[in-house]
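ligand=magnesium ion
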Amino acid sequence: MEEMKLEANKELNILKRSSSQIGSLQWLKKNLFSSWSNVLLTIISAVVTGYILFNTFQFIFTADWSVIAVNFRLLMIGQFPVAEIWRVWTILGVLTVLLGLSWGLWKGSMAHVAVSIGAIMLIMVAMPFIQMSTRLILGGNIVLLLLTFFIGTKLPKLKIPVIAVWLLYIPLTIFILNGFGVLAPVSSNIWGGFLLTLLIASVAIVISFPIGLLLALGRRSSLPVIKYFCVIYIEFIRGIPLITVLFIGQLMIPLFLGSGVEISNVLRAMIGMTLFSAAYLAENIRGGLQSLPRGQYEAAQALGLNKTYMMTFVILPQAIRAVIPACVGQFISIFKDTSLVAIVSLTDLLGMGQKLVANPEFLGKQMEVFVFVGFVYFIFCYLMSHVSRRLEVSLGAGHR
Amino acid sequence: MESVFAVEKLTTPLEEREDIVTVKGLNKWFGDLHVLKNVNLSVKQGEVVVVLGPSGSGKSTFIRTLNALEEFQDGKIIVDGINLTNDLRNIEEIRKETGMVFQSFNLFPHMTILKNISLAPIWVRKWKKQKAEQIALELLERVGIPEQANKYPGQLSGGQQQRVAIARALAMRPKIMLFDEPTSALDPEMVKEVLDVMKRLAESGMTMLVVTHEMGFARQVADRIVLFDHGEIIESGSPEQIFDNPQHERTKLFLAQIL
Ligand SMILES: Nc1ncnc2c1ncn2[C@@H]1O[C@H](COP(=O)(O)OP(=O)(O)OP(=O)(O)O)[C@@H](O)[C@H]1O
Ligand SMILES: [Mg+2]
């Protein structure tokens, strides 16, 4: 393992040195054409790469992207009433302010999140088919992001309020979108597009984490009732596919709640995703707990810390740090797995794509639609894994 | 006069003092393995007891039962007037009054040195953060590394880490300190700095139970030495008695091997 790393490092150094000192011709000779087998490999991979690139570009430039342009709003926010779109802009604005302030207040990994989101907005502004009004609003958001960044750097006192608003952000979003009697009601049944994808994913991620934590702790509990409940729950959920959980959710949740309570499809999907993801997170976190040496528990106990303090200050911070990469991996797969809700007839980003393709007006445009949908998923998944790598680096810096 | 480590130093002779630790008829099994066999020991206030014995004789297990890191099946343990039972509250009371230093330091790697030391005083003793940190800084001064307060354990040498571990235990203002081979994991050149701190602690009047293989320390600092073998105390007495005039065959054998 170690040796391989060394080897890789050496190669990297050779690459660096050669490209700067020896000149590119020499570099080519050394790295690509050093032997006959190497020459052969170089040629084959060049041909394959060229072929793939050529076809990709040919597709990109000959495809008819008007299907995306015409339906961009549908893909992004579904059939959310046009008159109420200001609500979507409002929650985006709040997000921008939060991101900007957090960027200024904490820097580090927050900077990466904020810059990436800003970059995505900038790309959208540059897209040819975006409406002028949308461009202006997005441009405004970018300015807002920078402005709040400066405010954040100047006002460290804002830390606690900003954390509070972050905690309230998802409930606030759902409140604004739904209306709940204060604003005109927009039933969650017509929520759709990428907005719905983001909503389901964020709810599942944010809520499944504390549940997963409790399950992980419960699984190690000395009380058999709690322990076996957690074991059975975790193993049961991990033993069935997500799609089954979603179907069960659609059928069983109304059954559990009785006939009096109406609960929307969207909420059922959120509950299903959350319960599913909690089981996997629990196993991740349990791995972190097990990775701690016994001496950490003993030192805490010997100091007289009770179980709650020991867990809160000594064990969990270390365990969670150790499993952040695994958890982010889990978050990414939850995000992608939200696309399964299309099967229980929700029109998330993928569901909306399917609807468009089924429309005779856009016959033969499957490729364009699904390539676009895939691209949007990719951008966000890439962003998450990028931030998690940053997070690992910055967390690792303090100790060890 | 308050001693450097804020221990109450008694001037009365050892024999006349009260017992602070009493162990009677202690028996412990790990499954079928009988690790502690009818152990009896009492420790006076301010006394320094060094526990010697071959590997696997039950020394660690013994001192770990005193602060309930290990359970025991039979016998009686009284620490600072508190009867050690299964009651969690009793256990936590005893742990407040006993500090422990481990062979492998066991500092919390995600906290600064200052946080390591002030954590328990703040949450267990309920002291104000300011007071706890001030005491932490004083203790770091006493163990000779005041400049390390804001570093992380991973940035310190082994000897420094063990001195922090001692400071961390002392910050709770315990009445008894337990040491389980505190210098065994250290490079030779760092052993002395840790033993020096322990020596000063002993001089300041702290009650100490020390498992160690450092014979120099035992001879110089111990008030009494007890010898463990196969889970029993086979001999106990002053350093002179044990080193110069051992009675038991197995004591002689052990000393011959180690000296
Ligand atoms: N958790 C445990 N479970 C089972 N057996 C144990 C456990 N801990 C210790 N033992 C056994 O109990 C006996 C006493 O161990 P202990 O660690 O107390 O010895 P020690 O005198 O401290 O030895 P050393 O000098 O090697 O540290 C040994 O035989 C050991 O293998
Ligand atoms: Mg031992």
